[in-house]
Amino acid sequence: MSIRVTIWNEFKHELDEKHAASKLYPEGIHQAIAKALGTEVDFEIRTATLDQPEHGLTDEVLNQTDVLIWWGHKVHHEVSDAIVDKVINRVMCGMGFIALHSAHFSKPFIRLMGTTCTLKYRDANENERLWIIEPNHPIAKGLGEYIDIPCEEMYGERFDIPTPETLVMVGWFKGGEVFRSGCCYTRGLGKVFYFQPGHEAYPVYYQPEIQTVLKNAVRWAKAERIVDEVECVHVDKPLEQLV
Ligand code: ZN
What we know:
The structure is a single chain. This protein is an alpha/beta fold. It has a domain at 3-114 and 182-221: 3-Layer(aba) Sandwich (Rossmann fold). 21% of the residues lie in helices and 30% in strands. The longest helix is centred in the C-terminal third of the chain and has 14 residues, at 208-221. The relative contact order is 0.17. It binds zinc ion. Zinc ion is lined by residues 101-102, 153, 199.
């Protein structure tokens, strides 16, 4: 059975000619990720961006999405609360949600976490060593002991998130900080993964090991089934006789 993946991107930095992202990702980060995931024959991939009607996340699209990937940075506040409500509802019903890099401050991720999701950051062209600390987790499949990322924005602790149900990866940066870089949660019937790498000014999403993480995360986040709604049901008849 195929996995229906929607890659959402605010798609702003890449359209700014003065920004490094316009050279690195001329068609947008969403298209680079779509191309990377496109090697998986069972993935049905579509993309959506902020400036499309309903941010590209119409009811039809959301209802046909098993896993939603989210990249945003500059204009989180421009995302409509009504669309965020729909995204959250779909996660409660079982849709997987993967928040990438600066999506730590996206409306849906903050709602799903229930905390501020603040962190430390520094953009100083430093390298990151991303340690895989749960090698038997499905998201770690095919990876070694660590991934070296030549250039990445530093994200450091404390990251104000709830304690992850499974912490799959810890990032270490040249400047000395560490970060919970691969965090798994369950929210309602849906699975949520936060993945730290992916600053728009560095070619992180072209790195094969990073692409492997994204593919694994999609497979992990896909629910066995997604319900139409999570109902609160009054039960008239007990299964067993009460008296
Ligand atoms: Zn960044």
